[in-house]
Amino acid sequence: MGDTFIRHIELLGYEKRFFPSQHYVYMFLVKWNDLSEKVVYRRFTEIYEFHKALKEMFPIESGDINIENRIIPHLPAPKWFDGQRSTENRQGTLAEYCYTLVNLPHKISRCLHVVNFFKVRHDDMNPVTDSQIKKPEVFLLPKDSKKSPTDITGPIVLQTYRAIADYEKSSTSEMALKAGDMVDVVEKKENGWWFCQLKNKRGWVPAAYLEPMDGPDESEEQEPNYAGEAYVVQKSYTAVEEDELTLKEGDTIEVIHKLLDGWWVIRKDETTGYYPSMYLQKAGEVNTSVKSELRNRGAPPRRSTIRNAKSIHKQGRKQISQETYRRNSKKYIQNKRNMRGNFQNKANVIIEKNEPEDNKPKAQPAVPPRPSKDLILNRCTESTRRKIL
Q: Among 125, 167, 201, which residue's Cα sits nearest to residue 300?
């Protein structure tokens, strides 16, 4: 048993996928003890195999020894062919199963088998798709239909945000918005795409189109890290706005400010500018999910590009200019110090070279040789000639 455990599992619905062949996966919202929330996708056959292994691990609690001792919930076996109707009809059973599972004694509900099964996988973040095949179809479980014990698991509160402008979705996994819509945010991703729900609809929404109800969202954003954090560009991008940077795949840059809308301020040499965070990967990390994500979703719109944005807050968002980012950059400051140091060193060298000249005693005039006797007799006056006679 580890320190990490699940405090709540909610069935959101299911997806109909067409790659590599048609199949169905259930969507679960998993809430962890560190308050993080993740959406994971599992086939029913996977869930049933997980269930069988759990029963083998706890034979007493599964009723294998004495049926009266069973506390692990029942789960029907998968059918020979699981179609859409059976997938849909099974949702109520799965919702109850998850509720019971999380509320079992800790030795079961918090065991590694349960924790590892619901951890986020590579395919959860970036489902394997093919551009030539139809995109997945999402079928959400109506929120009003979940009048079951899952509603009394404790204080599960989602943040409510307001749409500041209309947004037209570009894929079936996204959700369209109208200015003024109130949405509950299920999951926030660093790439600027948030998973939200609005009544019976759920889908991904650009974070730039949302603002919290209690005030501007600067408090949610990290402070600039002027020391910089090394990242590697995973996809080339050509700047569209003046304050963006054009980079090529493989370039190494430094991230100095991570913003909620998924457009981070980065530094390349002495230049700073905005770049899509989803095109970046932390230096030294194994390349797992970034490139797959790039194939499935584009960069979200920038907050500054939203037209007719109507904020309910009088206080405007804090704006930091690129010149401020550049001048506060640790690298910029260090370079300035180095330049000043070099200049000072050069000045000191000049002074040191001049000091010996100033400190040397002035040269005394040379004593001329004494003139010969013949020279004095020929050129000097009578008075001088008498002195040598």
A: 167
- 3-class DSSP state of 291: helix
Residue 243 per-residue DSSP state: T
Residue 96's pLDDT is 93
Residue among 173, 177, 175, 174 nearest 162 (CA): 177
Closest C-alpha to 322, from 242, 229, 202: 242
* Burial track 152-187 (b if 16+ CB lie within 10 A, e otherwise): ebeeeeebebbbbbebeeeeebbbebeeebebbbbb
Q: Enumerate residues 6+ apart whose C-beta is below 8 A from 239.
A: 245, 246, 273
pTM flag (> 0.70): no
DSSP state of 166: -
Q: Tokens 């996988």: give the residue.
A: 121
**Mean pLDDT per segment of 10 residues, for the chain of length 389 residues?**
83 87 91 90 94 94 88 86 84 94 94 95 74 72 54 49 91 89 85 86 90 66 83 91 91 91 90 92 70 64 85 69 82 68 61 53 63 71 70
C-alpha to C-alpha distance for 171 and 174, rounded to whole angstroms: 6
Residue 133, pLDDT score: 57
Question: Quick check: 145 and 10 in contact, CB under 8 A?
Answer: no
Secondary element (H or E) of residue 138: strand 137-140
Are the C-beta atoms of residues 11 and 94 closer than 8 Å to each other? yes
Cα 268 from Cα 35, distance rounded (Å): 35
Cβ–Cβ under 8 Å, residues 189 and 167: no
* Strand extents, DSSP E, the chain: 6-17, 23-32, 37-42, 137-140, 159-163, 182-188, 193-198, 201-206, 210-212, 229-233, 252-257, 263-268, 271-276, 280-282
- Cα 130–277–122 angle (5° rounding)? 45
Q: Please state at what angle helix 44-57 crosses helix 91-102, rounded to 10 degrees.
A: 30
Beta-sheet pairing, 23-32 with 6-17:
antiparallel
Domains in the chain, please, with CATH? Answer: 6-140 (3.30.1520.10), 159-212 (2.30.30.40)
